[in-house]
């Protein structure tokens, strides 16, 4: 088999793995958008905030230590304990639920009946606020996140492919774990939304707010629940990305990468988010591999957007989106 | 007392349809112009120009441009930074390719080139709307920044990858380069800002502006009553990009002097200008000025109080600034979705009745 083809296959596989991570972030967007019609730009920052909080709790950092030190002239930074990963994840989840409640109580309850674009801009404001808040609370330095997920090259795949092609594929263990977790997450979400009482209520709200309200479903509760779910997805995404490349500001930029994924898959479709993520992941890796060297490299910065842009011109609702019907 | 139209009789159509029909408004406008042109240049120094006046003037142009697109025509764009970069690089290429032509024309031509690029990236707006369009404009942002970073023709193959504004003068007074006087750069920007504001104001209250607003309010209905969405949307993209391009050219040539594209025209810039438009008020020229002034002054004030007076570390102040800007945007959207411009309008209504409210 020619070398180039084998390399391309490796790139393809790695693209699939990267796509899973994009899909994870996109999933959080879809959840909130379906249930409340809010396009949550802050999803990426939520992932960053969740990861920061997780690290902070694990390391026993004192929240707002920089601020406290600056105001009172003290020098506190650590409580001096190390939490086990599982406990920290649960505590972080509690923080995310509280955040979901606060966001709904303080922001979106006051913006009922506003135009979608106003809600979108409010989430941009929320993203800025949380970015500053996270940095003030936990400090802006790059942190290492290690919750015990396996990392490094996967030996069996390396050896097997070496036996087949005479060239071992480099697949990161972490990516494989991420794929498995993402698959479990999606299955769990589908089961939740199809077979549980709250899941049905969530779908009812997504279908028609007023009809749902009139049969006795509490919109507030559903929205807090959906934001908590999105917070949970953000936490999972934050753990994956944080383990991979450290918890830092650039984590919030993956939200921007998730946007073309959404456009491709359609804003309202969970399978769409997954398929879109995979297409973008594979597409940008293959494009960088094949065309990138010819035109100067670093095409990953824009490929996803241009692909989505061209795609949308032909199919404005995305791959799996509901058909857009307009009435005057 | 002062602010009322009673007794101010209009005897001709020209008077009736002037930009500021109320006498007090008109005098205030003349006063601001005289103040800006005749008094400020004599009293400012380098710090004031570089920290406040020049960013304010340049961002005002950008905000007016974006306001035409978002506030008047309803097409949300997140590509402002990319279009500013087009203006900057176009002016750079023109300035180095035609050194004998006055820089004034370079900057206008840079605006024209940006308008063409804007129309190109505005084409998808005919098919897609709302969020989809907002995300599609991100393609412009990232693609353009990448282009100016990677294709060395755009920065004349310089080793650093930066572009540096060569020294150019208007009427014998240097406005770009290292040896500029504070008042010269200020006046140069001011001329552009005032001209852009007058053009924008008159475009938006004329037939074209009404077409844009019809498209914004409901595009299908607008199409049915005879507004051509193709022309209306693309002209909004063109005019908006023209202003944004001029802002980008001034930002590079006069204000910064040397630019690295990812740093100066990144996605953060797009959001900054969008915030100016939101906080100032969607669909208002005055709002663009108010928003630009607010977001230029806020960091300066915060920095002076937190770092200067309280002695906090700079990074902490920067984070706090993020929080405050974010919170302000949310507060504005909740309390006054129409921004500072609406507060101003309400204040004017109150003034008209004052001191006898009944």
Automatic annotation (TrEMBL), chain A:
Q: Where is this protein found?
A: Cell membrane
Gene Ontology CC terms, in alphabetical order: plasma membrane
Which Pfam families did the record assign? BPD_transp_2 (PF02653)
**What domain of life is recorded for the organism?**
Bacteria
Q: Which GO terms describe its biological process?
A: amino acid transport
What membrane topology is annotated for this entry? Multi-pass membrane protein
List the InterPro entries hit by this protein, alphabetically. Answer: ABC_transp_permease (IPR001851), BCAA_transport_permease (IPR052157)
The record's section on CDD domains has: TM_PBP1_LivH_like
Keyword Cytoplasm attributed? no
* Keywords on record: Amino-acid transport, Cell membrane, Membrane, Transmembrane, Transmembrane helix, Transport
Residue ranges of the TM segments: 12-33, 45-64, 84-104, 116-140, 176-196, 217-241, 261-282, 294-314
Q: What is its main location?
A: membrane
Question: Which terms in the Gene Ontology molecular function aspect does this entry carry?
Answer: transmembrane transporter activity
Q: Which family does it belong to?
A: Belongs to the binding-protein-dependent transport system permease family. LivHM subfamily.
Return the protein name.
Branched-chain amino acid transport system permease protein
The protein's organism comes out as Lutimaribacter saemankumensis
Upper classification of the organism? Bacteria, Pseudomonadati, Pseudomonadota, Alphaproteobacteria, Rhodobacterales
From TrEMBL, chain B:
Report the subcellular localization. Answer: Cell membrane
Source superkingdom: Bacteria
Pfam families assigned:
BPD_transp_2 (PF02653)
Membrane-crossing ranges are 27-44, 56-83, 103-123, 130-148, 183-200, 236-259, 271-296, 316-335
Membrane protein topology class: Multi-pass membrane protein
Show the GO cellular component annotation of the record.
plasma membrane
Per the UniProt record, the lineage of the source organism begins with: Bacteria, Pseudomonadati, Pseudomonadota, Alphaproteobacteria, Rhodobacterales
Could you identify this protein by its name? Branched-chain amino acid transport system permease protein
* Molecular function GO terms recorded: branched-chain amino acid transmembrane transporter activity
The record lists the organism as Lutimaribacter saemankumensis
Going by the UniProt record, its keywords in alphabetical order are: Cell membrane, Membrane, Transmembrane, Transmembrane helix
